[in-house]
Please model this.
Amino acid sequence: MKIIMLLIPLVLLACAHETPPPPKEYHWTSLSEKGFTAHTVKVLKETKAFQSDKGFENLEIHKTPIADKSAADFKKIVLMGDTGCRLKESKYGDSYQNCKDGTEWAYAAVMEKIAAEKPDLIVHVGDYHYRESCSEGKVCRHYTDTIGYGWRSWEEDFFIPSQAGFAAAPWTFLRGNHEDCNRAWEGYKLLTEQTWKDACAPYEKTEYIQIGDLLLVNYDTASINDRAETPDNEERWAQQFKDIEKVVDERKPKQTWLVTHKPVTGLVEDGKGGLVTTNINLQKAFAKSGLKSKVEFMIAGHVHNTQLLQAEGFPRQLVVGNSGTALDNGEELMNRDKILKNKIAGLTIKDFFSDTKSGHSFGYATMTKRPDGKGWDLSFKDLDGKTTFTSAKTATRPLKINKKRKKN
Model:
């Protein structure tokens, strides 16, 4: 007994001097206008607070430029967007996903399939963070271990489930409206390569990323209103498109993709059994430029489904907002013939496709360079990584659509 009593202090002393576990680290590579950058975020101190808008002060952040890497030979680009687990309460009602159910919130599964594609680049078109509000006594308390705009929510919503993708390829990040100055901007600052003058920049400058003969134009539309803007703001957005046109004219790329968060010509349900366009402000501003014949694809998210839309007077619009967050009702989007026979908010839709058939139609899109190097093939992929739709197009040939559907 005396021996045991003597050993207890020694055991306690040994425990007191145990080496603490190493901090969690997240590593990824980004591709921006500045080139490639290697990122490391170390978590120095963790918090267990359920609701918090803080925690970024407990991170150690390192960014290292990579000078010996090139994007010239990229052949496969994955497109994704709107990935976070939706937990939101508002005057319009509550919307909850079960973040602990991989069927209901499938971002981690989508990410595994994206990594299996072995892409050269992953483009995220924005809206990474959705865990905004969950009051005490609500069912959502069983769906998540964290809420708010702080680091812990960002970690659960984006950094942890993105690990497979971080290891697979470099990323290009767009800013979504969920990352504007009223919401989760602080976490987005970990991803952007731009330096903001103030704590939060209302607009990021347009970035131009050269990938061989392809020019990615990354244009921040997070803060544009979905409803009518004031005349001053209208002119600002119109001037932005004119500035983009000038750069495209100077660089003369073989292909140009305009990458935004909010679609220029996407479709959404109006709540009355019909459809409307997503953003009249972007349409009006784009129409004042000469970009129609100089942009092959407009790529966006924001709308929580998939769309490939050809509207008269505009380039083809690709929407890929189905990579994790709760999906929009897509019933009206399934009636392709109705869409093609009617003008929608003044737009004549020349062609349209969506593969969003249910609330579990999660997935992503790939752009694969054609063997002859003269264009890129688009494919929508589902949660199994199977192709549901492919569109082959070169700069000189008319649009050809092939649909590959799984048998029921």
User: Anything to note?
Assistant: Helices lie at 2-16, 107-116, 151-159, 163-168, 185-188, 231-251, 280-287, 336-341.
